[in-house]
Design goal:
- This protein has a single domain, classed as Metal Binding Protein, Guanine Nucleotide Exchange Factor, Chain A (Beta Complex).
- The longest helix has 7 residues.
- With 163 residues, it is mostly beta strands.
- It comes from Novilysobacter selenitireducens.
- Belongs to the Gfa family.
- Keywords: Lyase, Metal-binding, Zinc.
- Pfam families: GFA.
C-alpha cells in the first residue's frame, strides 16, 4: 500500500510502500512518548526502505536515543528517529540493523489507513503513570515487547501488504 505523509508545517513530505500498513502497535516507552508525544504512545508502520521518497530533506533532523543500561552505563540506539527541524513532527524511524525497513509514524501519515481489528499496547512497564490505556475486547496489553512481530501480526490478520 502506498502511503504519503508530511510534517505539521509542510516542509517535509514523504511517501513509501507499506507492507504492514495497519496502525495496531501502540508503544508506551519513554523514547516514543517523549519524541512522538500525543496520547503517550507512538504507532509505527512497516514499510520498505528502498521505496522511501522524501521532499524537503534539508529540513530533516535525526535523533538517536540514549538508552540506560542495567550496569549504570548508557548506549546510543542504532535507531534513527527522523523529524522535521521546522515544527518538530516525528516522521519515521530507520535502523541500519534492518536496512530494508523503515517505520513511518502513523501520526504523520496523510493517506487513510486501515482500521486495526485489535490494538497491542506494548512496553506498558515504562508508560507514564498518568496515561490511561484502553481496555476492551480488541486491546492486548504487554509489559515488554510482544512475541509476535509486526509482519506476523499483519499476516495473522490477513493484512500483510494491505491485503
Amino acid at each position: 500500500m502506498k502511503i504519503e505523509g508530511s510534517c505539521h508545517c509542510g516542509k517535509v513530505r514523504f511517501s513509501c510502500e507499506a507492507y504492514a500498513p495497519v496502525p495496531f502497535l501502540h508503544c508506551y516507552c519513554s523514547i516514543c512518548r517523549k519524541t512522538a508525544g500525543g496520547s503517550g504512545s507512538a504507532i509505527n508502520l512497516g514499510a520498505r526502505a528502498d521505496t522511501l521518497e522524501v521532499e524537503g530533506r534539508e529540513h530533516l533532523g535525526v535523533y538517536r536515543a540514549r538508552i540506560a543500561e542495567e550496569d549504570g552505563g548508557c548506549r546510543v540506539s542504532s535507531g534513527q528517529r527522523h523529524f522535521c527541524t521546522g515544527c518538530g513532527s516525528a516522521l519515521w524511524l530507520f535502523d541500519p540493523e534492518w536496512p530494508e525497513l523503515v517505520h513511518p509514524h502513523a501520526s504523520a501519515i496523510d493517506t487513510p489507513l486501515p482500521e486495526a481489528p485489535e490494538r497491542v499496547h506494548m512496553l506498558l512497564d515504562s508508560k507514564a503513570n498518568w496515561v490511561r490505556v484502553p481496555e476492551g475486547p480488541g486491546d492486548v496489553h504487554v509489559d515488554g515487547f510482544p512475541e509476535e512481530s509486526l509482519e506476523d501480526w499483519h499476516r495473522r490478520h490477513g493484512l500483510l501488504d494491505g491485503g
